[in-house]
Specification:
By secondary structure, this protein is an alpha/beta fold. It has two domains: 119 residues, Response regulator (Rossmann fold, 3-Layer(aba) Sandwich); 108 residues, Winged helix-like DNA-binding domain superfamily/Winged helix DNA-binding domain (Arc Repressor Mutant, subunit A). 38% of the residues lie in helices and 23% in strands. The radius of gyration is 18 Å and the shape is elongated. 31% of the residues are buried.
């Protein structure tokens, strides 16, 4: 699975190396040299995972993590990649909501494995299963369709891919650029009308509405969020 990665790293050599490693695994990487630049971008864009260095200009990684978890309450895996080695600092980062902590210098295989593990935890219900139950929906991967009230819903392949991407990222705000890049493999700077059209079709075909326990909401100047209104199934 191709991932969209945000990297907070002010060392150009380190960021270039990590970008290369990620591209070799077919992941895309957006690099930020200071914390405030990353935060500004996160107001309009979304990522599958965020990697933070601790000591960076302007606003350190811990402050960025606090903003992600406490102010924006973003549901996205976060990994620290830092030279700071003290156990109290590591514990502090984990308590604030980091999902993992890697000490520099990172090794490629370890970093890729940790990224895969962190993202897998966020989509564990969708790993290697022929069908996934998201009541009242059943996602049928073998036939590339959704089932609602025992009826198969006919969908184009792209509609199915978009719908499964939204359900995989339930309760997460997803930017149009993120959706375009992940589902269409398209430059996120291109026209996003395609996303809006397909989202409208999916909402209608799947009858996504409060009565079925789900809402697919538009987020102004950002993208969409598929919400599960039944907290027992989040």
């Amino acid at each position: 699975m191709s991932l969209r990665v945000a990297l907070l790293e002010d060392d150009e050599f380190q960021s270039s190396l990590i970008e290369l490693w990620l591209s070799e695994e077919n992941h895309s990487c957006k690099v930020f040299a200071d914390g405030r630049s990353l935060i500004r971008h996160l107001n309009n864009e979304s990522f599958d995972i965020i990697i933070l260095d601790w000591i960076v200009p302007d606003m350190d990684g811990l402050e960025v993590l606090r903003w992600i978890r406490e102010q924006r309450k973003l549901r996205v895996p976060v990994i620290f990649l830092s030279q700071i080695e003290g156990e109290p600092e590591v514990v502090r980062a984990l308590k604030l909501g980091a999902d993992d902590y890697i000490r520099k210098p990172a090794q490629k295989n370890e970093l890729i494995a940790r990224i895969q593990a962190a993202t897998r935890r966020f989509s564990k219900d969708f790993i290697n299963k022929p069908t996934v139950e998201m009541p009242p929906y059943t996602i049928d991967y073998a036939n590339s369709c959704f089932i609602l009230n025992e009826e198969r819903i006919e969908m184009t392949q792209k509609e199915f891919e978009l719908a499964t991407f939204l359900f995989t990222n339930v309760n997460r705000a997803l930017s149009r650029g993120h959706i375009l890049e992940s589902v269409w493999g398209t430059d996120p700077d291109l026209n996003t009308r395609t996303v809006d059209t397909h989202v409208s079709r999916i909402r209608k075909k799947l009858q996504i509405a409060e009565g079925n326990g789900w809402m697919l909401n538009s987020i102004y100047q950002h993208g969409y969020r598929l919400e599960n209104l039944d907290t027992n199934h989040i």
